[in-house]
Design goal:
Helix content is about 85%, strand content about 0%. The chain is mainly α and about 375 residues long. The protein has a single domain (about 1-175, about 190-385), classed as Growth Hormone, Chain: A, CATH 1.20.1250.20. The model is unreliable at about 385 (pLDDT under 50).
Length: about 375
């Protein structure tokens, strides 16, 4: 089950991140501004975020496996559609949104399934293992889309290629993902208590801050390296994708450590370190230094940090709201992934205004610092939530 979920994440992240190195190409070819180019990725994340809570609710009611398979198929149609029909700004916007609509169900279905099956003492490790898929997907999408474009001469070619394995993944899910539907349906009052839980809100806000900085780096990192550091498109995509390389062992390591010493103790180390590494990216200029900065950032960013936070959410929900795991994970990811809507647009706007992406990256560092303060003010792990 865990390996199937990991592979699904790898494909969705490859589908998603293959767009980022191509933003510097899509903009000039279609004659659109950086803000409009950033809005293509924002359209994906808008639908992705909007689907989080509805898909979690649907999973609690009709089964997480069923929701996962149907919506993953829609995501596959969306990414293949970009490869076949994405010839204009409007078509890219709509097909990116369709892909986001389908992909939006994966997080609550994936982690809702895992958290329902895996015992608390193994959740951090299991989350980190699934997160390996995110890391491989980021690296693959970043590293491959540039060379495929340069070989084919078409920015649509990477999406067409990725559409095939994405659709084939449906057969893997059908065979290996267990059913987790509960016989008793959650009440509206239980959902209301979940949405008002102050501990859940604090964790969500801190994770939003972390992911804001991450999406600044990943969506606009290739353009920053190409336009302001003079690297080729292939180099820029590869160097940015290195965040995934160090995240592979880091995600498992931080997750396992959080199982042993507590979620908060790990989180208050990882988040400020991530902000510092992001800041370093704006200071270095040589290839070795840039590689080192992105590798360092990857040790503390998204795939390394989020497994600890989602496990923390799972600890709370399994005790307080055990019938609402899908909705809780959907709520968590909807809120934190709204950063992926805001960050590309704000960063593109700051670049249009200042002619540089450095102010956008510094803004991400500042938001992550605020998230660190919030974590410090959050109560530590409670034993009854880890039971």
């Amino acid at each position: 089950m865990l390996y199937a979920l990991m592979l699904g994440w790898a494909l969705l992240y490859a589908d998603r991140t293959s767009m980022y190195p191509l933003l510097s190409v899509i903009g000039p070819q279609l004659g659109i501004s950086s803000t409009l180019a950033g809005s293509i990725t924002s359209a994906y994340f808008l639908m992705y975020v909007l689907m989080q809570i509805p898909s979690g609710l649907a999973g609690d009611r009709w089964g997480l496996k069923r929701v996962l398979i149907v919506m993953f198929g829609i995501a596959g149609i969306g990414i293949a559609g970009i490869g076949l029909f994405g010839t204009s700004y409007l078509s890219l916007l709509l097909l990116s949104a369709l892909h986001g609509l389908g992909a939006g169900a994966y997080y609550p279905a994936c982690y809702g399934t895992m958290l329902s099956v895996v015992p608390p003492e193994k959740r951090g490790y299991s989350s980190g293992l699934i997160g390996i898929g995110m890391a491989f997907g980021i690296l693959g999408g970043m590293a491959v889309s540039g060379p495929v474009f340069e070989w084919s001469g078409s920015f649509r070619a990477p999406f067409l290629i990725l559409g095939i394995p994405t659709l084939l993944m449906l057969f893997v899910f059908r065979k290996y993902i267990p059913e987790t539907k509960s016989g008793a349906q959650p009440s509206l009052s239980e959902y209301a208590r979940l949405l008002k839980d102050p501990d859940i809100w604090k964790i969500n806000l801190a994770t939003f801050a972390s992911l804001y900085g991450f999406w600044v780096a990943v969506t606009w990192g290739p353009t920053f390296l190409k336009a302001e550091r003079g690297f080729s498109l292939s180099q820029a995509g590869l160097y940015t994708g290195l965040v995934a390389l160090s995240a592979i062992p880091a995600g498992i390591g931080w997750g396992r450590l959080s199982d042993r010493i507590g979620r908060k103790k790990v989180a208050v180390i990882v988040l400020p370190a991530s902000a510092f590494a992001l800041y370093l990216i704006t200071l270095v200029t040589s290839s070795p230094a840039i590689i080192a900065a992105f590798l360092l950032f990857g040790m503390f960013a998204n795939s390394a940090f989020v497994p600890t936070m989602v496990s923390w959410i799972g600890d709370i929900v399994s005790t307080r709201y055990p019938r609402s795991m899908g909705a809780a994970i959907g709520f968590f990811n909807a809120f934190v992934m709204s950063s992926a809507i805001v960050a590309p647009l704000v960063s593109g706007l700051l670049r249009d205004v200042t002619s540089s992406l450095i102010p956008a990256i510094h803004t991400g560092c500042g938001i992550m610092a605020l998230g660190t303060i919030l974590l410090i003010l959050t109560p530590g792990d409670r034993k009854d939530d880890r039971a």
